[in-house]
Amino acid sequence: MTMNDMDVLNHDWRKEHPPTINIYDSKVVFFALLAVHFLESIISRQETGSSFSAILGGGRTPKMLNQIIEELAKTEVQTIDWNRVYIYFSDERCVPPDHPDSNFKLIFDTLTEPLGIPPTNVFRILGEAGPEKAAADYHDKLSKFRGQQDMPVFDLALLGLGADGHTASLFPHSPALKEFKKFAAPGGRGPEGWERVTVTIPVFNAAKKVCFIAVGAEKANAVQQLIRGTYDPTQLPAQAIRPPKGELVYWLDSSITANAGISE
């Protein structure tokens, strides 16, 4: 483990590199603006002649977001070349790809298939192979993506936040929190009972932009601890996500911030 790796687990970076905090009273406005931001990020990248890469998570919040992205993309955006959009995953449950709990199925059904993103541009985690084999396979996929760089560098990482402070499948006190050599690792058993595979902290921290998405009053304590609480990523893993060369943005709804005492 390098000194920089140790820093993210032990050094409280929040005053030195405070995140941007976006707060919205309306969930409709929240998701609409985030969807626009996602699409504009693709357009901006492609206007430079480059492809666009994103690492996405699953859950209820991305499902709502993806539906709005699809609507906007079909009605208002005609300039995106979906053949130059590449999708990876932040984590996965160890289930087949057609299982209702599969993050791949969620993203496929609500985003990649409706938008016409080629299946060859969507790199899923092989959850059905089991945590060890699936993690090794995804490490290899991310290694190929990184090319000649030290780390795979995504244009955007969209991450959720659990009420316990987890993100992706980086759960409190998980051994995966101390994995800095591999790009993916077994994440342990999730609250629903499935074994998980997760992308590791260094990959998220290498992204050009990380957006945390948190909606719902039940996440108020996690958000308050994330921003102002004692710095302890082993207890609240989302605190370890800090891209030193990228941008960190917290997208929050006011039901969270009112209870957490957080303002922009």
Keywords for this entry:
264 residues; three-stranded antiparallel β-sheet; alpha/beta; 9 strands; Rossmann fold; six-stranded parallel β-sheet
Overall spatial form: globular
Overall number of structural domains: 1
- Regarding CATH, which class? Alpha Beta
Number of strands: 9
Main sheet specs: 6 strands, parallel
Proportion of helical residues: 25-40%
Termini separation comes to 35 Å
CATH architecture: 3-Layer(aba) Sandwich
Name the helix and strand elements from N-terminus to C-terminus, one letter apiece: HEHEHEEHHEEEHEHEH
Alpha plus pi helix count:
8
The CATH topology: Rossmann fold
- Please tell me the overall pLDDT: 92
Strand content: 15-25%
| Unreliably modeled segments | none
Describe the secondary structure blueprint for this structure.
Layout: H1 3-10, E1 20-24, H2 27-47, E2 52-56, H3 60-75, E3 85-89, E4 91-93, H4 103-115, H5 131-146, E5 156-160, E6 184-189, E7 195-199, H6 201-205, E8 209-214, H7 220-228, E9 247-253, H8 254-260
Parallel strand pairs: 1-9, 2-3, 2-5, 5-8, 8-9
Antiparallel strand pairs: 4-7, 6-7
Helix pairs in contact: 2-3, 3-4, 7-8
Concise summary:
By secondary structure, the protein is α/β, with parallel strands linked by helices. Helices cover 36% and strands 18% of the residues.
